[in-house]
């Protein structure tokens, strides 16, 4: 399952907006306050399709500008820890000893994918 790594109140609003756009939650009080501030993110290529759709919807419906760089889960975590982006999407959480940066953060479930097990049956 992919997770969104976020920091700060503005990013919590982005997460809420994402949930609104995906039909999971209805919250409108925060969106107008952040409509003019661009938000940047990086990370999971697996989650890229969903994030791209939410990015377009957030722009069209709420006036939010969201930029996303699909540079892989590790790259997203590194960019987030370095303070280069506001949020990251990652298929795995920060690993023990991996730098997380000085900002506090939380994980939010974002997308889920199936796992296939391949095997060969012999007669």
Report what the structure shows:
This protein is α/β, with parallel strands linked by helices. It is 31% helix and 20% strand. It has three helices and five strands. The chain has helices at 8-21, 48-62, 73-81; strands spanning 2-6, 39-43, 66-69, 87-90, 106-111. The chain has a five-stranded mixed beta sheet with strand order 3-2-4-1-5. The longest helix is centred in the middle third of the chain and has 15 residues, at 48-62. The model is unreliable at 20-33 (pLDDT under 50).
Question: Helices and strands in order, then pairings?
Answer:
Elements: E1 2-6, H1 8-21, E2 39-43, H2 48-62, E3 66-69, H3 73-81, E4 87-90, E5 106-111
Parallel strand pairs: 2-3, 2-4
Antiparallel strand pairs: 1-4, 1-5
Strand content range: 15-25%
Helix content: 25-40%
Question: Which residues sit in consecutive blocks of at least 5 with pLDDT less than 50?
Answer: 20-33
Main sheet: strands, sense, barrel: 5 strands, mixed
Strand/helix succession: EHEHEHEE
What is Rg? Answer: 16 Å
Number of strands: 5
Sheet with most strands: strand arrangement: 3-2-4-1-5
Average predicted confidence as pLDDT: 79
Figure out the total of helices. Answer: 3
Query: What would you call the structural class?
Result: alpha/beta
- Ends distance: 35 Å
């Amino acid at each position: 399952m992919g997770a969104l790594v976020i920091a700060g109140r503005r990013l919590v609003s982005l997460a809420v907006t994402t949930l609104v756009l995906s039909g999971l939650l209805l919250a409108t009080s925060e969106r107008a306050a952040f409509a003019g501030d661009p938000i940047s993110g990086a990370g999971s290529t697996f989650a890229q399709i969903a994030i791209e759709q939410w990015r377009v919807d957030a722009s069209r419906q709420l006036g939010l500008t969201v930029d996303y760089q699909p540079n892989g889960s590790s790259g997203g975590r590194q960019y987030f820890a370095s303070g280069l982006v506001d949020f990251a999407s990652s298929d795995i959480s920060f690993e023990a000893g991996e730098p997380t940066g000085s900002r506090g953060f939380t994980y939010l479930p974002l997308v889920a994918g199936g796992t296939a097990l391949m095997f060969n049956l012999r007669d």
